[in-house]
Amino acid sequence: MTKTVPCGNELHKFLIWDTAGQERFHSLAPMYYRGSAAAVIVYDITKQDSFHTLKKWVKELKEHGPENIVMAIAGNKCDLSDIREVPLKDAKEYAESIGAIVVETSAKNAINIEELFQGISRQIPPLDPQENGNTGAIKLVKPTAPASRRCC
Ligand SMILES: Nc1nc2c(ncn2[C@@H]2O[C@H](COP(=O)(O)OP(=O)(O)OP(=O)(O)O)[C@@H](O)[C@H]2O)c(=O)[nH]1
């Protein structure tokens, strides 16, 4: 899946992989997060267990993920906040402690999805010109094609 996000006067094009969260697919996860610029770790605000599992994923990313990976925490199913088990305050405190972005989303009602990707976009450093195939010392023009970034 791809998503293009305006960021200042650039366009960031994200290539997005949805990794299966279940334990039996755990060993496949490094294939997705290796080389990724950002990771969105999703929990379900109506299930405390999912917030606990999220912390395990954050630990794994910190130990084995790319050094400067941008981490974003998404508390999904915010349309069901009347049956929430995870207070937003807990998620915010945890996110702050690990330097991650946090936002409550609803995939069902398309709430805060755009904001989530904009938040990530703002944290991703500009492309290294050499990585971009540009070896010149002075950048005279902004690329017209969107820069591609990976996100899992
Ligand atoms: N109310 C509500 N239901 C949702 C939302 N997002 C997903 N669901 C429902 O939650 C269930 C699980 O959704 P999935 O997308 O399969 O969840 P997942 O975490 O990606 O599952 P795995 O890929 O198997 O790890 C489905 O029945 C969805 O319709 C949401 O924002 N609000």
Describe the 3D structure.
There is one protein chain. With 152 residues, the chain is α/β, with parallel strands linked by helices. The protein has a single domain, classed as Rossmann fold. The protein has 4 helices and 6 strands; from the N terminus they run E-E-H-E-H-E-H-E-H-E. The chain has helices at 29-33, 48-64, 88-98, 113-123, and strands at residues 2-7, 10-16, 38-44, 70-76, 101-104, 147-151. The protein has a 3-stranded mixed β-sheet with strand order 1-2-6, with helices on one face. The protein has a 3-stranded parallel β-sheet with strand order 3-4-5, sandwiched between helices. Residues 20-22, 76-77, 79-80, 106-108 line the site of guanosine-5'-triphosphate (GTP).
